[in-house]
Specification:
371 residues, FAD/NAD(P)-binding domain, eight-stranded mixed β-sheet, six-stranded mixed β-sheet, binds flavin-adenine dinucleotide
Length: 371
């Protein structure tokens, strides 16, 4: 890269806070910091020409958990921890909505529907029998009444007629959301520098190095690199997980009228302007999808095409575009908000509901760095 003197000076001038990664967490952390202490200087360094991870590539579900996911988490980590994470997601959505107007992120409050396969009778019965219990949890922790209800699925006939509806969920356009957050960041005086791929953090000399041989001093560093964290901080317990997604052309009489989840959240689909967006299926090849490489596999593409045909016969010949995104997962669904050095903090491991939890994690990071 042929940087001018002016560009080098701009990129290399040390700021009070330097953030790596301009996804929802990096932007939210920067905004939270400036809202609390506007005099601090904050710069975000991003390797892509757009954010290049998950925040502009996701499915746009503004969700905090289906009944099967909640039950699954309770089984693994207990009720208290599960509800702590659900609360973070719910609070995160509140923060996001306070910053971005519904029309700015194309928010549609259509709710979310959990569908069951006809062969999933045991899971279905378990979920239906737990609706009252989950509603009590949501009421006592989130103050939402009658969050989940049993509804009839009559349109998507390949699936069970019993489904569970969450009236508190919605769908957004993730790029519109990120553009609105970027504008807010710019208004607060936060600079985002794109095309800066950081290859090393030299903690001893308090500098970061880039693949273009730039050396950038930092005072305090906030690491928001989610699924790509291992390259810089291998000691953090976060691994990449790829999600493959398709979108069709506009379809006549598209049967989808809300966000839909299936297979404990591993498969998700929704309507976008008459198109079907469908993604997931990572559970088909758990280890193969633990990668930070964008791309597709025939196994998952064929699987998603099969589901697409079940949703709308003939739609697999009307696929308009495929893409993938990388999220960060680990042994716990808890996001990591942790000091890795006295002046470096990481906010990573967002899992599959980062639209929800991202703004909350940004707020947590801000509270840590300015306390
Ligand atoms: C296909 C898909 C669908 C999803 N659907 C949903 C959904 O519907 N609802 C939901 O809530 N969540 C969803 N998620 C999850 C959600 O998108 C993520 O949890 C969230 O976006 C993570 O935000 P982040 O800021 O932590 O990470 P990211 O958005 O990945 O941002 C990290 C940034 O760091 C940058 N970076 C990394 N390494 C470096 C480096 N060395 N130097 C400079 N920059 C670097 C990357 O380029 C990237 O822009 C989905 C994820 C995927 C992949």
């Amino acid at each position: 890269m042929n940087y001018s003197f002016w560009e080098k000076k701009f990129i290399q001038t040390p700021m009070d806070l330097t953030i790596i990664g301009s996804g929802i967490v990096g932007l939210s952390a920067a905004i939270s910091i400036k809202e609390k202490q506007p005099w601090l200087t904050v710069k975000i360094l991003e390797r892509g020409s757009l954010p290049y991870g998950a925040s502009t590539k996701n499915a746009g579900f503004s969700c905090f958990g289906s009944v099967s996911e909640i039950l699954d988490d309770i089984q693994q980590i207990g009720e208290e921890q599960t509800m702590e994470i659900v609360k973070m997601r719910y609070q995160g959505l509140k923060i996001l909505k306070s910053r971005v107007q519904p029309q700015q992120m194309e928010y549609q409050h259509h709710g979310g529907t959990e569908l069951f396969r006809k062969s999933d009778n045991i899971l279905k019965e378990q979920c239906i029998n737990s609706i009252v219990y989950c509603n009590e949890l949501m009421h006592s922790h989130l103050d939402i009444s009658n969050c989940y209800s049993l509804v009839k699925n009559r349109k998507l006939t390949a699936y069970d007629t019993d489904a569970i509806y969450n009236a508190s969920e919605g769908i957004i356009n993730p790029v519109a959301m990120m553009n609105a957050l970027s504008r807010k960041a710019a208004d607060l005086g936060i600079s985002v520098v794109y095309g800066i791929n950081i290859t090393e953090v030299d903690r001893q000399n308090k500098v970061i190095k880039t693949d273009q041989h730039l050396i950038i001093e930092y005072k305090r560093l906030i690491v928001c690199t989610n699924g790509f964290t291992a390259a810089l901080f291998p000691e953090l317990e976060v691994v990449p997980a790829r999600n493959q997604v398709l979108i069709t052309e506009k379809l006549d009489n598209n049967p989808l009228d809300s966000g839909y989840h299936m297979d404990k959240g591993y498969v998700y689909f929704r309507n976008y302007e008459g198109r079907i967006l469908l993604g997931g299926g990572r559970n088909l090849d758990h280890s193969g999808e633990l990668t930070d490489q964008f791309g597709h596999t025939a196994l998952i593409q064929e699987y998603l095409k099969k589901i697409l045909e079940e949703l709308y016969p003939g739609a697999s010949s009307k696929i308009y575009h495929w893409w993938s995104g990388i999220l960060g997962i680990g042994p716990s669904k808890y996001p990591i908000c942790k000091w890795v050095d006295e002046d470096i903090i990481a906010g990573v491991r967002l899992g599959g509901m980062g639209v929800a939890i991202g703004s909350y994690l940004g707020e947590m990071l801000a509270c840590e760095v300015i306390k």
